[in-house]
Structures are given as C-alpha cells and as structure tokens.
Design goal:
Number of helices of chain A: 15
Oligomer: heterodimer
Strand content of chain B: under 5%
Order of helices and strands of chain A: HHHHHHHHHHHHHHH
Number of domains of chain B: 2
Largest sheet of chain A: none
Mean pLDDT of chain A: 90
Radius of gyration of chain B: 19 Å
Strand content of chain A: under 5%
Low-confidence stretches of chain B: none
Largest sheet of chain B: none
Number of strands of chain B: 0
Order of helices and strands of chain B: HHHHHHHHHHHH
Distance between the termini of chain A: 23 Å
Radius of gyration of chain A: 19 Å
Mean pLDDT of chain B: 91
Structural class of chain B: mainly alpha
Shape of chain A: globular
CATH topology of the largest domain in chain A: Leucine-rich Repeat Variant
Helix content of chain B: 55-70%
Low-confidence stretches of chain A: none
Helix content of chain A: 55-70%
Structural class of chain A: mainly alpha
Chain lengths: 282, 222
C-alpha cells in the first residue's frame, strides 16, 4: 500500500469549513469542478448519511476532465474523488456504479473504484477483479508505455480482493502469480491479500522479509499491509523496523483491531502487550 | 542507559563524522556514536539530525537528547523547526521524554494547534509525564491542572492517534495525582467518555482508555 509518512488532511484551495448542505450544493452544480472535487472529498470524509449524497456521487462517477498538471489536478479528478468517497459511505447502492467504473479506460478511476469496492466488501466485484488480473504480472502487471503506472492498478485490485475475503482456489492462484512481480510494493499487496484470505503464516513471513527491505517506501508498504492483515506475530519486527513511528502506530492499530482468526479484540494479555509497544512509539 | 558526561572532551570528531556521513546507514551509525558520547556539546548536532528525514537516526538522536536531560532543553526549544513537522515531532518527543517543566508551554501549544498529528500525539504523551517532584506542592498542583486542561481539550482531536496519546497522557497524569486533587474527577470522566458506551469511534482508543481506567482503579490491567 502506498503510505504517506503522515496523514495530513488534504487542503484543496476551496478548503474553508463547509456544512453538508453546502457540500451537496457544490456537487450538484457543474460549472466549478474544483468545488465539486472538494465536495466529493468532504462527503466521504464526513461519512454523510444523506441519500442525496450517494445519488450525486454516483452521477459524478461519469464526469470527465483532462489532467491539469500545473494546477495539480488529476485526470477525471471529480470522478475519482467520488469513487473514493463512495467507499467510505458504506452504502451497497453504490456497488453497481463502482463496478461500471471498474471497466473505465482511466486506470486511476479503476484504482479508486477497486479500493472502494474492497472497503464495501463487494463480493460482486470479485469476478471482474479476477478477470482483470488473470493475465498476471507480465501483462496486467506490465508498465504502461512512458509511465510508471501499470496496465492495471494491481496494488489496489489485490488489496481489494484481500479485503473482500473470498478465498476461492482459482482466485488464489491469480493472486499468487503477483508474488513474483518485479516491484516489491506489488509483492507486498499480493502477500497481504493471501495472508488475509488463507491465514497461512508463510505470507506473513514474506511480509516480514519486505519489512527489512533497504527502501523506506517498501518498509512502509509492508507495515501497512501487516496492519491490514492484523497479523500479530509481526509485533516485534514492526517495533524494530526503521520507519516513522506514525506508520508503526497505524500498523499496530491494525494488529489490535484486525487480528486474523477468531480473536475478538479484548483487553487480554496479548492486546495489553501490543498497547504497551504503541505507548512507547507515541 | 546513557548518562551525561560533561567532563569528557568536546565530541568534535564525532560531530565531524556526522557531518560527513553520506548514506542513511552512515548517518544512523554516526548519530548513534554521537548520542552515546552523552556530551552536552552534542545536543545542537543531535537536534539537527531530527530534521534529516532519517527515522532511524532520529530515534538515536532522541535517545541521546533524552539522556542529556535538562541540558538538552534549551537547544531543543531554541531550534524548533517551524517548517518541518517531522522534525518538530521528534523534538517534542525528546522534550516529552525529558519531562522538564520549561517545555510545558510548548507542549500545550503543540497539542492545541500543531498541524502535524505526530507532533500533537508526542505533546499529549509529554503532558502526562512532566517531572514536578522538585517543585513546591502548590506549584505542582497548578502545573498539573494546566496539563490536565490541555489534555481534556486534546480528547476532541480529529486524529485517532492523538486521542490515543491523550488517554496515555491522562493515565500517567492521574496516576501522579492525589484523588482529592480538583482535576482528578474530570480526568477520569474524560477517560470514561473515551472508553465507555458508545465511547470513541476508534476501537484501539476505546481499549487504551479502558486500560487506563483499570490501572487507575488499581486493577491488574497490566
């Protein structure tokens, strides 16, 4: 998982405090796209419960605009932000719309849609994700010409499959093919998904090896992936690895909250030991 | 454990080695050696390392600064980097570890208004562990109340990790407080709000606040 050193709130230029009515108004209009972009982010961040929010965000998935590199505006910025917000709102009505976005020619939009379908635990997304990845690291995982991006947003798609949680043999075989991808971040995402889906510590061990990688960016990714899988044997290696405490704390939160297997999180001895390590990192 | 060694010669060589380090690992090793010299003259260079975006070296520098104790407080306060929240987080962490009361004002303002969650969380932890033993009782009570007020306000922070640190800070502060002291009850109430039903949105924050309450009740929570 791409991990920033620290989650500082994005502060788009239109970033003055607004309320829900204002966010909906900004998303409804379509003259000012930067206002729509901010409104889409805001509705997701605030976990809006307003039914109109879902409707407007689903509509916004269809919006298209070119990239404006000089203004820092990404390609199809409103649609991508709408896809991200729909993952946070937790409403199943968004799923068919996100599935459609998964077939969009814009790989950035497919990436955002895949992540959100993962957050929504959308079983319906598994066949499409599996088909998109089936050609393996050499095709789906090959770089695009003149870009560092891959043909498919493999990392997001692999992570989504792990979140959704369907452990079907054919699917596992597709994910396993990415364990040999040349990029360590993709390997990390594949191991994370396999650890989540199979609970086999072999994949946890692979993530521990990535936690020792010479590049900080890879260690950060392995931290986030171990946290997402909630794999508790990683406690000590996480404590020791050279990375920012912010990321270690996020990973350890994952170990507390998402333990693999049937351990509901209670204040038992093991959890107390985890919290003691977190205290030391503050 | 390192202990300050003001009698030793100035660590000029070690500082030079630090300046000449040309790889992340080299910087880490040079920082460790300078920290281990435990010389007050090392403090400004150790503070500098906090801004180098090398987490391993920063950890070693923070350990070295904490070992220097009160001799590191002035260099830390005088060189706070307004433009680099990563560096500020490490500096606040060092001040929190030293627990010198001269850092109180900075800890208060860091928790209340720094933009970096890592700075706010380090400040919250520090507000629970100021060393006040040497001060007159009435002064101790007054300063603890200031720490408590800052932590109570921090309980409403938007970032889970800051609220987590507030729970840790409140636990430590209340453990050092007489139950009859005016703030004790409001501190407990804040922890109960984080721990209870429905409690904080983030499960790990609820768990940590629950652990604090069980320790404050004299429970065996760890």
């Amino acid at each position: 998982m791409i991990a920033a050193a620290e989650p500082i709130e994005p502060a788009p230029s239109a970033g003055a405090p607004i309320d829900e009515a204002e966010a909906l108004r900004r998303l409804r209009q379509n003259e000012d796209q930067s206002a729509q972009y901010y409104a889409a982010w805001w509705l997701g961040r605030m976990r809006s419960r307003n039914p109109e929010a879902i409707t407007l965000l689903c509509q916004a998935l269809g919006q298209r605009q070119p990239r404006q590199a000089e203004a820092g505006v990404e390609h199809n910025a409103v649609a991508r932000n709408a896809a991200r917000a729909l993952g946070k709102l937790g409403q199943a009505e968004a799923i068919p719309h996100l599935l459609q976005a998964l077939d969009d020619p814009d790989d950035g939009l497919r990436e955002a849609a895949a992540r959100s379908l993962g957050e929504l635990r959308a079983m319906e997304a598994v066949p499409v994700l599996c088909t998109r990845l089936a050609s393996g690291p050499d095709v789906a995982g090959a770089p695009q010409t003149a870009s560092s991006r891959l043909q498919e947003p493999c990392e997001a798609m692999l992570e989504a499959l792990g979140e959704i949680g369907l452990a079907e043999p054919r699917l596992l075989a597709v994910i396993e093919s990415f364990v040999a991808h040349e990029r360590p971040l993709i390997r990390s995402a594949a191991c994370r998904a396999l650890l989540q889906l199979t609970d086999d510590s072999h994949w946890g061990q692979q993530l521990l090896a990535l936690l020792e990688h010479p590049q900080l960016q890879v260690r950060r990714a392995a931290l986030m992936d171990l946290g997402a899988a909630g794999w508790r044997p990683a406690l000590e290696p996480i404590r020791r690895t050279l990375a920012e405490n912010s990321l270690k704390l996020m990973a350890l939160r994952g170990l507390v909250e998402n333990p693999a297997g049937p351990h509901a999180t209670r204040l038992d001895e093991e959890t107390t030991a985890l919290l003691a390590v977190m205290d030391e990192l503050l | 454990m390192l202990s300050p060694n003001p009698m030793a010669a100035e660590p000029t060589e070690l500082i030079r080695a630090l300046r000449q380090a040309d790889s992340p690992m080299g910087l880490l090793l040079a920082t460790r050696q300078l920290a281990e010299a435990c010389h007050p003259g090392a403090a400004p260079s150790l503070v500098e390392v906090l801004g180098f975006n090398n987490p391993g070296a920063a950890v070693a520098a923070v350990d070295g600064l904490i070992a220097l104790g009160e001799q590191a407080v002035e260099p830390l306060l005088a060189n706070l980097d307004d433009h680099n929240y990563g560096a500020r987080a490490w500096a606040v962490r060092a001040l929190a570890g030293i627990g010198d009361v001269r850092g109180l004002e900075l800890l208060e303002s860091a928790l209340a208004c720094d933009i970096g969650p890592s700075v706010r969380r380090a400040a919250a932890r520090g507000l629970g562990q100021l060393r006040l033993d040497a001060l007159p009782r009435s002064e101790q009570t007054r300063l603890r109340q200031r720490c408590l007020d800052a932590l109570l306000a921090g309980g409403g922070d938007g970032e889970w990790v800051v609220r987590y640190a507030v729970a840790v800070g409140l636990e430590q502060l209340l453990l050092g407080m007489d139950r009859a002291e005016p703030g004790h009850r409001s501190g407990l109430k804040a922890l109960q709000e984080l721990a209870g039903e429905p409690g904080d949105d983030t499960p790990v924050v609820r768990l940590r606040a629950g652990l604090a309450l069980s320790r404050l009740a004299g429970g065996a929570g760890g």
